[in-house]
Write the structure tokens for this entry.
Amino acid sequence: MADERLNLLQDLHRQAGAEFQSYAEIEIPSTFGNTPAEYSALHKSCGLMDLPQRTVLEASGKDRLDFLNRLLSNQTYDKQKKTGLPPGRGVYSFLLNNKGRIIADMTVLELGERTWLEMDFRMIEPVRKALDAFLFGEDVKLSSLAGSLHEITLQGPKSAETLAEFAGSALPSLQLMESAQLGLFGQTAVVYRNDLAGASGFGIILPADGAAKVWSELTAPRGEKPGLRQVGWAAFNAVRIEAGKPMFGIDFDSPSRARGFLQQGMLRRPGNRRPHALPRAGRPPTRRHPHGDRCPAHRRRNHSGRPGQRRRRGDQQHHLANPLERGDLPGICEEAFRGAGNGADDSGRRGDEEGQSDGAAVCLKTLGAGTRGGLRENLEMGRPFDSLRAGPSTCSGQGDKR
């Protein structure tokens, strides 16, 4: 078995004058010397690209589709009809954790007696372990085919015509994610529809031993027969971004949320009317006041006395303008000083003596006698309101909520 971290076609790429770039432990072609021509081929004719960074996790056993349906974001088994994906069908799906965050993306291809999960080679072991943790009595076996298979792809508006010409037979009409077995230069390949660059495209999964032969035949000069151009990562990446095709590990990765894709309908299960099928991860939606920023409570100072910041989520009644109703200890004292008037001496800490004494009386009356001494001292010294939180309060279960 070949080394799963080695690009089996690297020697052929070097002979074609390819420049390489790293993709984890694998060297993949970045360009074959003429990036604009490669870009044009993907838009106007057909481009051939090597995908050594993709591989397959195989699921076998009679319960495999029902098992995958319970763990993947897209439907692989119909519970009402008690039938799974028919042979030749496929879906694009996510494996998510219990918070709706992406572990990996994959293309699920049903081949009849087995199911292939085509994905990034770096995710084979994490996905296998994650799925294996939920196996109990089901008849399911998971096997990594990394190193025994190799994937290439044809992308461009003339990819179907080119593939049929090289195969020597009519290509079955394949819809997106549908697959078929096809003989290609003496090798049995699994071909599936995957429009990575916007136009029609086909993934070709071959036995690793025959990958070099197939690549050599595809790139050999053929006179008047339909030709194609070898394409590197640079041109392909530009075209797939133009087509709006997100890619795992680049545009989104494991900490990302799947909610955006579900809202676009990319992963919506049949019959689900909601715009997303998974609970929202992260913080709950912000509860805004119906008056928006014009609400007086939004313009008030927060608990730390700094303007322009939102109050903490624990304060569920922040929209109440009256701090006595809100049970807001700093707000009560702030109201006390606010009622004291706008006059101030040179130190800026004392206002009108009569107003200040009235405000202090409001604080002491509201908070009870337990902290009366400490409050009087703070009020007289003009200390920050945060220092008033230290003492216990005898108010009826309100206090400052955290």
In short: The chain has two domains: 1-282, 292-389. The mean pLDDT is 75.
